[in-house]
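Q: For a teaching session next week I want to show students how multiple molecules come together into a single three-dimensional assembly. I've collected the sequence lines for a complex. Could you give me the predicted C-alpha cells for the whole thing so I can convert them for display?
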Amino acid sequence: MTIEIDHITKRFGTFRALDDVSLDLPRGELVALLGPSGCGKTTLLRIIAGLENADTGRILLDGNDATDKHVRERHVGFVFQHYALFRHMSVFENVAFGLRVKPRKVRPAEAEIRRRVMELLDLVQLSWLKDRFPAQLSGGQRQRIALARALAVEPQVLLLDEPFGALDAKVRKELRRWLRRLHDELHISSIFVTHDQEEALEVADRIVLMNRGRIEQIGNPRQIYEEPSTSFAYSFIGNVNAFRGRVEGSNVRIGSDLLPHARTDLAEGEPVVAYARPHDTEIVSDGPEAAGVAARVNRVLTNGSVSRVELIANGPERDGAKDYFEVEVGAEELSRLGLANGQRVRLQSRRLSLFPDHQQGRSS
Amino acid sequence: MAGAATLEGRVSASATRFEGRVATSDSGLVKSAILFVSLTFFAVFILLPLILVFVEAFRKGWQAYFAALVDPDALSAVRLTLLAAAIAVPLNLIFGIAAAWAIARFEFRGKQFLITLIDLPFSVSPVVAGLVYVLVFGAHGWFGGWLQDHDIRIIFAVPGIVLATIFVTFPFVARELIPLMQSQGRDEEEAAITLGASGLQAFWRVTLPNIKWALLYGVILCNARAMGEFGAVSVVSGHIRGETNTMPLHVEILYNEYQFAAAFAVASLLAFLALVTLVLKSYVEWQAARTASGEQH
Amino acid sequence: MARVHRVLPGFGLSLGYTLAYLSLVILIPLSAVFIKTATMDFDRFWSVVTSDRVVASYKLSFGMSLLAAAINVVFGLLLAWSIVRYSFPGKKIIDALVDLPFALPTAVAGIALTALYAPNGWLGQLFEPLGIKIAFGPWGVLVALVFIGLPFVVRTVQPILEDFEVEFEEAATSLGASRWQTVRMVVFPAILPALLTGFALAFARAVGEYGSVIFIAGNIPYVSEITPLMIITRLEEFDYQGATAIASVMLIVSFVLLLLINLLQGWTARSNRRNA
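A: Of course. Below is the structure for the complete assembly, covering every listed component.
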C-alpha cells in the first residue's frame, strides 16, 4: 500500500507534535521513522493508523483519502510498544481475535480461523506456545505474537511502535534480523518507529529522520549516514565531532585555531558548526604554525585493529564542560603517532561539513 | 472491608487520556446514556438522602434546630460519642502501627492468616460484635458474676460502648498501613540502622514520614466509623438517656418518639461530620498523590 | 523459617502486642459465641436457627443482600466508568461523595432513606399511586442495602479501570473490533475479578447490616425482619442462648464470605499484575 501524508499538523495543547509534515511512501518498503523522543514520530505513526486524528492535513492510503476513516476500517496492523497482548486470552486466542470480531457475514468458519492462526504462529515460529498466556512468554516471544496478531487481519500496512524498545540488547539484535527476513518474505508495506539509529540503519529500506515535529531528511541508510543534509541529521546519526566557530575566509575560526573548509557559499563571520566523523578526523602533531584544532589526548582505547582516541579540547569550557573529541585511528597510524596521555596535538578533518549554527547565533 | 477503599487505589488521573483518543472514546449517545443512568442512580441513592437530612433538620426553623442540639440529653450523647472515639481511635492507631511493623518488616509463618484475622471485624455483623461483649461481660456472661461482686459495670455502661466501638473500628489503621509498608519494603529503615540510628529513630525519622498520609487516612476513616457506629453500640448500651446514649442512639430514640425534626437535627450534625470526613479524606488523597508524583519526577 | 539475623528491632514487641490485642479485643470475645453455642443442646440449637421466623429472616437478608449487590455491580460499574472515563462538571465532588455511605452513620442513613421513601416522602409519593410500598417493607430493606453497598463496587472497580492501559482497547480496535466487542471481549474480562470482589464485599456488608435497615424495614415478623434483628429480638427477651445460636450461624457465613473475598482479591491482584 502506498502511503501519502499530506501537510499533517497535530498539537497537544500548546505543544506542536507535528508541524506540517508531508511524506510519500511507496509500496512494499520497510520504513523507519527515526528521531529523538518527543520528535513526533509516534504521533505520526498513530495518525497513519487512525488512533489519533490530525488537526489539519490528509492521509491517503493507496491514493484514497483515509483521513476520516476510523481505525477499525483502515485495515492497518499495529504492533504496540508494550505489545498490548490480551492477558486473559491464550496466544491462540490473541492471534484469532481479529478474525473472531469480523462481522458475521465475512467471519471465517472456525476451522478456517484455526488454520489461519496456526499458519501465522508457524510464520513467527511459535506454534508450540499456542496454549500459553501472555504472562508466560518472554519479551521477544510476546513481540512476535503481537506481530502475528496484527498480521491475522491481513493488513495492507504494518505499523510498529518502538518494536524492540522493551527488549534486552541480545534479543533486540535477533529480532531485528528476524523482522527484516519476515519483511523480505511478505513484502508488506511496513513503518516502524525507533529512536535507535543503529536499528534504523540496519533494518530499514528507507529512513525518515524527524526532529521537533518536522522531517529533517528522508533517504536510504547509506544516504542518511554518509550524506546528512542538516545539522541535526549530522549530530543525531553516528558519532561525530562538532567544532563551533565563525567563517573566516576558507577557514573556520575556533578560538585561536583555524580549520580549513571548502565551502564558498558562506558569509564572512557567520557562526557555523563544523562536523567531522571520527574516522574522517586526523591527529597531527602540534606546532607553532600547525593548522587544526588544538586538543589534548585523554585516553586511547584499543579494541581490535581500530583504536579510538579520546581528546579534550584546549579551548574554553562550554556549558561548564570541555568539549570532547573522538578519532578513529588504525593500528599502524597509532604506532606512528606514538600518543601519550596528556600529549598536545591538533585535529584536522579529511571531510568537514558546515552548517549555520543557530545555537551560537542566538547566544551572541 | 468496611473501608473497601484504601489510599493506594485512590490516585486518580484525568479522563482526557481516554476521551482524547479515537479508540477509547465512547460515542456521544453512549456517553450521555451512561452518564444519565449513573448520575441519576447517584442522585437518588446518595445525594437525595444527604440533602433530605438537612432539609428535615431545619423544617421547624433555626430555633427548634438549636434547641434540639443543646438539649442536655443531646449534649451528653455528644460527649459520650467523643469519649468513645477518643479512646478507640488512639488504641487502634497504636495497634495498627504495631501490626504493620510486625507484618511488613519481618517474615514469619502464618502472616497471611494474621492479616485475614485483622480484617475479620469488618465481616462480622455489628450486632454480633455487640453480642460477644454481652456474652463475656454481661450479667449471665463469663465474668458477669465476678463483675457484679466487685460492682463493676461494663455492659449497659460506658466501658461496653467503648469496647464495641473498638471492635468495629479495629482494622481501619492497620489495613491502610500494612499494604503500604509492604510495598515500600524495609530498605530505608535498614539504611537508617546501618547509619547508626536506633530502632525508634529509624521509625520516627524514616518510617513515619513515609506513611503519614496513609496513617492519617486510616485515622479519619476510623474516627468516622467510631462516631457513627450504631448496631454494636446499640446492643451494649442499654439506652439509658443522658448516660449511655451516643449520638446515633440518641437519633434513634428521638426518631422513635416521633420527634422527627429533633432527630434530623442531631442527624444533621452527624451528616456534617461525614462531609468533613469526606473533605479531609479527599485532601489526604490529593496530598498523597502529590507526594507520590513528586517522587516519580 | 531459617534463622536470620534481623537488622530492624521490635519484632517481638510489635508481633506480641499485635497478637495480644487481637486476641483480647476480637478473638476471645468472638470465641465466646461458639463456646456458648457448644454448651447448647443440639436440638434446641437446631430449633432456634431453623424456626420459621428466623428462616424467613435468612431469606430476606440473603435474598435482598444478593439483589442489592447485583444492583450495585451494574450501577456501580456505570458510575465508576463515568468517573474514570468521562469529564463532566462536578465530577470531583461526586467522586468524593461516593464514599458517603462509609462516612455517614448508618442510623442517619436509615432515617433519611425512610423519610425519602415513606409514602409521603419525596420519592415514596411517586411510587404510592403505583401501589408500590418501599419504606416499611422488604423493598425498603433493598433500598438501604443498595445505599450501603455502592462504594464497595465503585471503589474496587475504579482503580482497575484507571490502570487499564489504553493500548489494549487500541489494539482491539485496530484489529477491527467494534466498541461493544472491545468492551465485552477486552475490558470486561479485565475488570471481572474486581467486579466479583466488589459484589462479594457489598454482599458481606449487606448481610450483617443493621443500622440503616431497621428504620426503613418496618420489621414485620415473617415479612421484613432481617437476621441481625432476630439476634436483637432474642436479646431483648433475655434469650441469650437463642441470640447466640443465630449469631453463630451469621459468624460462619461471615467466615465463609471472608475466605471467598480473600480468594477473589488474590485473583484480582494476580490478574492485574500480569504483563505489568
